[in-house]
Amino acid sequence: MTETTERSGGSIRRFHSSEADVRLACFPHAGGAASYFFQVSRQLSAVADVLAVQYPGRQERRKEPFIPDVTELADVLTAELRQWADRPLALFGHSMGALVAYEVARRLEQEGIKPVVLFASGRAAPSLSRDEGVHLRSDAGLLAKVRELGGTAGALLEDPDVVEMLMPAIRNDYRAVETYRHTPGPPLACPLVVFTGDADPQVTAAGAQAWDAFSTGGFELNTYSGGHFFLDAHAADVLGKIRSRLEG
């Protein structure tokens, strides 16, 4: 496997070349970037061609305008991922990424492209989204929320220059998530696997279980100890479950 960042233009990044039979598209959390999935790509490259999604307005795309709407972002990403559907396609998203991945899965199925499986992590069911006004807070208030959840490389948030660089993307993404409203429609046909932390302040046990109504293809809920970024402590087990699904 090579370890080069391969770009296809637009949103898709490939950190490791893989000839695996299935592709796994990974969607980052609010304020996150494609690089969050580098280790996912490295560890799963034997079983999946990992496509890490880079939203506009961050890292090497920082000069591109943000997309402050989940459904509009899903429209753009679906059009790009359609080009990668020559192999079976699975989707994984954490937090905001779970919403985006879900909306992309809906669009793909409407076009006759059924994902192998949708992995939704760190997010309550789409119908339970609510606006807490976090995106309207001052920079200090928004930063306090990010620190509370423990995301976006905590130590980096102590560097004022880094915070200044990250803040526009974080604010944009919180706006996108908080203004999202689920549009009723048929449930997904693909299997749905949900991961959640038992101490996540954003996702109750009932909120995670509520995903069950969003697919007729089978539902599995995996609960771990930890908060919103439980993934960091349980990466081996989560990736093991993803690997098993993709191999199956």
From TrEMBL:
Residues 25-246 form the Thioesterase TesA-like domain. The keyword Hydrolase applies. The keyword Lyase does not apply. Keywords: Hydrolase. Pfam families: Thioesterase. It comes from the Bacteria. SUPFAM superfamilies: alpha/beta-Hydrolases. InterPro entries: AB_hydrolase_fold (IPR029058), TEII (IPR012223), TesA-like (IPR020802), Thioesterase (IPR001031). Belongs to the thioesterase family. This is Thioesterase II family protein.
